[in-house]
Amino acid sequence: MTNKHPLDPARFSELLFESMQRINPGVNELEFYEFCYALDILTPEGGWASVVPEEKRAIEERIGNRDFFANIDIRQKVNGRNVLEEQITRLTRELFVGLVTGFYEEEWVAKYFYFDVRGFFFLVRTVYFTDAGVKHLGGKPFKAFEQRQQDFERRFEIGYKEFSEANAEVDEQFVDVIDGLVAVRGTPILVTIAGPTAAGKTEITASLRGRFESEGKKTTSIEMDNFLLDNDYRDGQGIASLGREAYHYDIFMQSLAGILRGEAITIPRYDSSVSSHDEHDRLKPGYQPITVQPADIVFLEGNFPFQNEDVSHLIGIKVVYLTDDPIRLKRKWKRDMDLRKKYEVSYFRNRYFRTQFLRAEDCYRAQMQVCDVLVDTTGAAVWLAPDAAVQYTTWQAGKQS
Amino acid sequence: MSTVQNRIDPATFAESLFEKMKHIHPGVADLELYEFQYSLKNLRPKEGGWAAVGLEPMAVLEKMVNDSSFYRGIQIKPSLGDKLVLDPQIVQLTNMLMVGLVAGEYPEEWVRRHFYFDLRSFFFLHRTTYFTPAVQAHLGGKPLRQFEKKQERFERTSAIGYKEFMEANAEVDGAFIESVRTVLAKRGAPLLVAIAGATAAGKTEIVARLRSALAGDGHSLTSIEMDNFLTDRDHREAEGIHSLGRAALHLELFLQALKDICAGKRIQTPRYDFITGGSSHDLQGRLLPGGKPVVVEPAEVIFMEGNFPFLIEEAAPLIGVKVVYLTDDPVRMQRKWRRDIDLRKKYEPAYFCNRFFKDQFLMAGQVYIPQLLLCDLVVDTTGAALWGTSEMAGQLGLEKPA
Where are the beta strands (DSSP E) in A180-282? Predict the structure, then answer.
């Protein structure tokens, strides 16, 4: 231990390393020099003494305001290279300095933020469970299990196999609930599975389809993304990707009606940011649409606000499938960065930081207030709206007798 | 080049390859098929798919990957639009190996012998041979000490941090540190210890630990950075001087500095600035006005790190212990993923992949194999073995195991 000032560069790194091991146990996996490598990139030109942490209340106010997130420039560049956006950088630097100087308590930092070791930045903890959402879902989980995702706390990235193993109990319970609700509510039925990126929607849908098909039922799946308009067109028109104007909406509505009548439908195909259909809903020459055969259970996946009235009445079971942001980020490091090599690293970090708050506000919190089933994989709990709970419990009792 | 269209079923190609690749790289078994397909999609030829991949005979491939002109031809910054991409020859080699595995044209054993698969890059690289017959003969054919190969625990991982790397190497590193202690006790101070090793082999960290051990024994220590003796980059580039040879250095100053420090004198070395590419000294070895040399105080143990610390013939007799610190390419690549890409965010991944693929064969031929033929000790962290010349074995009081 030296007696140097806490903001002296060498002393600062030592003190921060100690504090960060408590904030994120994954930091313990690093040698001090490895931690310093990552820290070097964030060190301000004027040194750590040039960073003045704001009052806690000012920060809380900022991160509770959607404008802060909406104004994050996800493609910010310096000398032609993507960089970690300046507001994100500033926040992480402030938290670092506040932790080292004691201006911020570790409990306060951990309450509002989480630290991603691989990205080496702080992100805001998104609130999904509001009072209204919890009330709608009967105030407590229908069933809770051991929270096995806690095993990932020291990990930098997570592959699907281990993720699915950690969720085995809660997923099994969820599949049984859907089985019961479909039996009670009848077919053909449209089941929407909403959930943030990398929550595990696609994989749980595959499990559900497997269960129903083993019972001799026909299933199919429609990805909401296939109805998206060309990315360039949306960018050019300034269209946010969640509104109906981002989609081939008329085709979407006709498709839902058709498949619920038991008809085969032809829908657009969206691949590599390009739709098979133009903005007037006409198939482009040389593009192939997707044909979806009729089925007993039709799964609709995506980030669309299914709670909107014009769609809502067509949906038989509304599911929100949640996984906490830190875990989803680790899944995306593995899936989207390591395996798919989909994004540039700074763009990826900026985009993830920006999107979670906005999506929760625009989509998931509202859907949690109208859904039938909520799966919280991180909390290892299945929540049910009271009528769904009654239907499932009755079905289960009937099955047992 | 032959094509195997009639033996490739596009629908089942990914499934067949997935099964084969589990035998090539056990880490593939940790992926779900759909995750494997995500990576595979980036490699699939846009035109004609996998059936369009022609296969070279195995002998042709072996010749190609053992010829330095193949590596010299690898571009490290090819781009598609504004995006850096993998060099086309790297993609072609991986595609050939994948198709050859599925078609049964290349036996798995042959692929494993000549190539390794890096899971995170999702491509094949040629296995570099460091222990050539001549190197083995120089080192008496057998290691001085052999330990359990604990780096095998990394065979399923994609990236390795230093803590786990250090834990895996604990025994061989401990034996190495003890060896240096023994040599120092026998030969006496000052002792110049030169450590050569490829990128991410673990040189810097082992030197730090060696320093800590010797300082704990009460010895005074110092370091000489060989890079500080580099001449101006502009001069070297204008003259076409390779940065790994004697011509790249202020050679006279370098040799004099070694002689003086070994005689227990305080020395001043040039200072090289990697950012500006400039030396503190002119080409005649004179300190430039305003130039700040590096002052090195005399010490009992002097460490010299660099890519080629004992390739300079005249310097070799001054060096007390000449060490090559080796870690196999697949493990170094995984270390670099964690250290240089994840933590330092130093390179764009495609650039990193191209550069790593290109450099290992060339550096082995130019730098590491020549030094393995001159060294006293080799620390092979992957093989968990300490190798030495018979002279070194004698000094250490070790006999070659039967």
Answer: 189-194, 219-223, 265-267, 270-271, 274-275
B42, B161, B344: residue with CB nearest A341: B42
Question: In a mutagenesis test of the A interface, which of B21, B334, B345 is the best target, namely the one with the most A β-carbons within 10 Å?
Answer: B345
Low-confidence ranges of chain A (pLDDT < 70): 1-3, 241, 305
A182, A171, A137: which is closest to A392 by C-alpha? A182
The token pair at B285 is 């070895």
pLDDT, mean of each 10-residue run, chain B (402 residues): 64 92 97 95 91 95 98 96 94 97 96 98 98 97 96 96 96 97 95 94 92 96 92 89 84 94 94 90 93 94 87 90 97 97 95 97 95 97 97 86 52
Q: Which residue in A30, A33, A340 is closest to B38 by CB distance?
A: A340
- pLDDT tens-place string over residues A117-169: 999 999 999 999 999 999 999 999 999 999 999 999 999 999 999 999 999 99
List, in sequence order, every residue forming a beta bridge with B323; answer none if it has no partner: B195, B377
3-state secondary structure at position A286: coil
Query: What is the distance, to the nearest Å, from the Cα of residue A335 to the centroid of all Cα atoms in its chain?
Result: 14
Chain B nearest CA to A344, separation (Å): 8
Q: Are residues A159 and B120, on separate chains, in Cβ contact within 8 Å?
A: no
Cβ contacts of residue A83 below 8 Å, gap of 6+? A76, A77, A89, A346
Q: Please name the member of A118, A339, A344 whose beta carbon is closest to the beta carbon of B39.
A: A339
The structure tokens 């099994």 sit at A172
Tell me the one-letter amino acid at B245.
Answer: G
CB A327 within 8 A of CB A151: no
Residues from chain A contacting residue B211 (CB–CB below 8 Å): none
Q: Of A341, A343, A344, A345, which to mutate for an interface test with B (greatest number of B Cβ within 10 Å)? A: A341
- pLDDT recorded at residue A80: 87
Our measurement of the distance from residue A127's CA atom to the centroid of its chain's CA atoms, rounded to an integer in Å, reads: 12
What are the helix (H) ranges across A28-166? 32-42, 56-63, 66-70, 86-101, 106-112, 131-136, 160-166
Which of B34, B161, B349 comes nearest A34 by C-beta? B161
Average pLDDT score over chain A: 94
Q: Which helix (H) or strand (E) holds B222?
A: strand B221-225
What does the pLDDT read at residue A1?
Answer: 44
* Phi (first) and psi of residue B151, to 5 degrees: -70, -15
The interface predicted TM-score (ipTM) is: 0.89
Q: Give dist(CA A39, CA A100) in Å, integer.
A: 14
- Strands (E) in A289-399, as ranges, are 290-292, 297-302, 317-322, 373-376, 381-384
Determine whether the interchain pair A161/B344 forms a contact, defined as Cβ–Cβ distance below 8 Å: no
Tokens 């030969």 correspond to what residue?
B187
Asked whether the beta carbons of A350 and A84 are under 8 A apart, the reply is yes
